Structures are given as C-alpha cells and as structure tokens.
Amino acid sequence: MDAVSVQRVLFIGSLGRSGSTLIERLLNEFTDVAAVGETVHLWERGVRDNERCGCGEPFHRCPFWTRVGQLAFGGWSELDLDRAIDLRWSVDRSRRLPAMVHAHRRGAATGDQREYLDLIGSVLTAAGRVAHGDTGADVVVDSSKHLSSAALYSLNPRLDVRVLHLVRDPRGVAFSGTRAVDRPESSEASTMAEMPTYKPARTAGRWVTDNMGFTQLGRLDVRTMRLRHEDFLARPIESLADIATFAGLSAARLPRDVFDGTDGVLGTPMHSVAGNPMRFGGHHVTLRHDESWRTGLPLSQQRMVSAITAPARRFLGY
Q1: H or E stretch at 146
Q2: What is residue 12's DSSP assignment?
Q3: Residue that wins the pLDDT comparison between 228 and 251
C-alpha cells in the first residue's frame, strides 16, 4: 500500500448494543481489512489505562499497537497524552456537532479540530500500514459508533471515511441496554467491571437522535450505507458482500471458509482498542434473531419505547 495514499476507513456508526462488534469481527477476517475497535476511547482506555487489546495483550504489550505508536508518534511515550484527551473531549462531542457541520460546509476545520484530526489520522493511517505484519490493509474498520466521531473523522483529508450506519429495532436495543455485561478489559479493581446500562427511555431518545443524525451525513457529502441488523441476520453473506463493495473491497474476499452465513469460528486476532467483549480471542458465532425483548422488556416499556421512536422507527423501516 502506498505510504502517501489516503487511508480508507469504514466507520461503523450505531447506537451501542446494535450488533456492530459481530460485523466488525466478520470484516476482520477479510484479507485487506484491519479492525481496530473504538478509537474514540484509544487515548484513555488504551494509552493511559493499558486495558487489554482484542488480541488479549495489555495495550502496551500488544505488538500491533506498539508498532502503530512508533510509526504515528515515534512511540506512545512521545505523545502529549493529556493534550490528546483534552482535545478529544473538546471537539468530539455530540454538543459539538453544529461546529462540525459548519466546518464541513465551509470546507475548513477549526484549529482544535485540525490538531485532533492530525492525531487520530496518524493513528488510523499507521494502523493501516502496519496491519498483517506490515503488509498493510486497504481498509481500516473503526467501530467508534458515535455520530460526532463520524462527522469529525470525515473532515480529515488524510482519510477516506465511509460510514456504515447500522440500525437495530429500538425495543431490542432498549432491552439489551438494561442487561449487565461483564467488561473484562482489565483486572484492576479501580476500573469498571461491567458495561454501562441505560434506562429504556434514555435509550429510546438516543435511538432517535443518533440514527436520524446518521441519515443526514449524506448532506455533508459523507458516503453512507444503511444496514438494519435484522436484514444482516437474514442475509449475512449478501450483506457482507454489499459492505465490501461499499468499502471498496472485492466481494470475492468474503470469509466463506470461516463463516458460511450461519455459523463459524472467527480466528483472526482483532486488535480492537475498545468495544463489546465479543472482540476477544477466537469466538464461535451462530447467527440468530434475538427477540428476547418481546418477553424480557415489560409491555409498558415496550409501548413507551415504541411511542418515543415511532416516526423515526417508521422512517427506518420498523
């Protein structure tokens, strides 16, 4: 891969608990893909807290991330980490979306935006170059999910950002968001032991604002592809082919020897810096529709979520 070329990035945008990690792991089996997880959390969970990479190693013992740090900054110790964290929380926030829209429309980022984009661009470009033992990856998959990150990263001229907008039935997302899931990134007692949980009303509101926000990225000339989680489960191989085409990959490189559309074992290590625990190690996957929300989510809450999301839900095909 040409060292001066623009790095292609497939950004998975969604609300949490929408199935993004499953798709990311499947894409990571492609020959020319490197999935790096949620880079929005890189500075704190990876560089600062040394949490485990998806390969199982602590961040600073992972050969992949060590090489990325060397190529991007001359080593992670050379990075002004406090500044990186301050910038992230300054420019990559939902409340900063108007500033991002303004930057897109005028064709120029602000000073702080440019400074942060240089940092994240260096990381993603380096990740593409050192993937697969330095043979490189045509596409880096970033599952940061956040609408703000998608809008911000796509301002970077060093990156060709294409957004896969992943949507799941809001009642399923709401129910999943109430369930505790272990977060095994670190054994340190001071770190969070479980993924955060959310009340259904909050999830419903976020489902509307985030998903409708993703539908507007095309107005900023950001290339987007929308995929419903339920449609992916019904046609996984065909959906992966569509994603591959959208990302600029050859559909012939689908991992049919690993995954036949129903089940399989995902064996390629994924150097993901953060995300759902499914990202760790080899993982047997069997696809099935999870409709446990129909019995697990109280009927009153189902009705509330349905009411809050009604117009957006109909727009998105639910």
Answers
A1: none
A2: E
A3: 228
Question: Among 166, 167, 169, 145, which residue's Cα sits nearest to residue 310?
Answer: 169
When mean pLDDT is compared across 66-70, 149-153, 217-221, 264-268, the lowest value belongs to: 264-268
Partners of residue 7 on adjacent β-strands = 159
Q: What are phi and psi of 48, to 5 degrees?
A: -80, -50
pLDDT tens per residue, range 55-80: 889 999 999 999 999 999 999 999 99
Cα gap 197→278, rounded to integer Å? 17
pLDDT at 183: 63
Beta carbons within 8 Å of 314's beta carbon, 6+ residues apart: none
Greatest alpha-carbon pair distance for the chain in Å reads 56
DSSP labels, 254-272: --TTTB-SSEEEE-S----
How far is it, in rounded angstroms, from Cα 132 to Cα 25?
15
d(CA 304, CA 318): 15
Q: Is 4 exposed, middle or buried (0-12, 13-18, 19+ CB in 10 A)?
A: exposed
Parallel/antiparallel/unpaired status of strands 263-266 and 283-286: antiparallel
**Mean of pLDDT over the chain:** 90
CA pair distance 120, 131, nearest whole angstrom = 16
Stretch (H or E) spanning 3:
none
Q: What are the pLDDT digits (tens) for 73-128?
A: 999 999 999 999 999 999 999 999 999 999 999 999 999 999 999 999 999 999 99
CA distance 242 to 239: 5
pLDDT classification of 190: cutoffs 50, 70, 90: very low
Which strands form 159-167's sheet, in the order they lie side by side? 33-37, 139-145, 7-13, 159-167, 223-228
Rounded-to-integer distance, Cα 34 and Cα 140, Å: 5
Number of other CB atoms surrounding residue 44 within 10 Å: 16
